[in-house]
Automatic annotation (TrEMBL):
Organism: Litoribaculum gwangyangense
InterPro entries xref list: Lipocalin-like (IPR024311)
Lipocalin-like domain boundaries: 29-136
One Pfam short name: Lipocalin_4
Source organism, top-level taxon: Bacteria
Full protein name: Lipocalin-like domain-containing protein
Length: 155
C-alpha cells in the first residue's frame, strides 16, 4: 500500500512540473552573484540582521553561488569584521505572476547552526532578474509599520 501511495505522489509531482518561466529563471540565476547593496524603501537607519545570520554591512559584498539543477547554493561573507565563511542553503523559485515576472523565492539555510530547526526558511520576492542584475525584496514590520528590504545583486 505504501508503494502504491508513493507511486501516485511521484506521478502527481512529475505531471505538475515547473513552468517555462521558472525554468528560464533558473538558467539565468545559475552561477556566481555579488550582493552589491542593500537598501530600504523608507529613509532611516535600521539595525537589520539578514537571514538570522549577519548585519547589512556583513552581507554587502558577499558572494553567492546558485546551482539550480539541485536547488542548492552557497554564500560567502568575506568581511573580516564579521563572522566570515561559507553558508549553505537550498532554494526554490515559485511562480507568482508570469505577466509581471514576479516570484516568491524560498531560501532555507542548511548550515550546522540551523540543524536543530529544520523548518527555518525565508520567503523573499524575486522582484527583478536579468542576465546581470537580480533583486530580492523582503517585507518586515518595524514598530508596526511595513518596511521593504531590497537586496541588489550583480553578476
Amino acid at each position: 500500500m505504501k508503494r502504491i501511495l508513493l507511486i501516485i505522489v511521484t506521478i502527481g509531482m512529475i505531471s505538475c512540473g515547473t513552468s517555462k518561466t521558472v525554468r528560464t529563471s533558473k538558467k539565468v540565476i545559475k552561477g556566481d552573484w555579488t550582493l552589491s547593496s542593500i537598501t530600504y524603501n523608507q529613509a532611516g537607519t535600521y539595525n537589520t540582521v539578514l537571514l538570522n545570520d549577519a548585519s547589512k554591512a556583513c552581507f554587502e559584498g558577499s558572494i553567492w553561488k546558485f546551482v539550480p539543477n539541485n536547488n542548492t547554493g552557497i554564500y560567502t561573507i568575506n568581511d573580516s569584521s564579521c563572522s566570515s565563511g561559507e553558508r549553505y542553503f537550498v532554494f526554490t523559485i515559485q511562480e507568482v505572476d508570469a505577466t509581471t515576472g514576479l516570484y516568491d523565492f524560498l531560501l532555507k539555510p542548511t548550515n550546522e547552526k540551523y540543524k536543530s530547526d529544520t523548518n527555518q526558511g525565508f520567503r523573499l520576492k524575486l522582484s527583478s532578474l536579468s542576465e546581470t542584475q537580480m533583486q530580492w525584496q523582503q517585507s518586515v514590520n518595524v514598530s508596526g509599520s511595513p518596511l521593504t528590504i531590497n537586496m541588489n545583486f550583480t553578476k
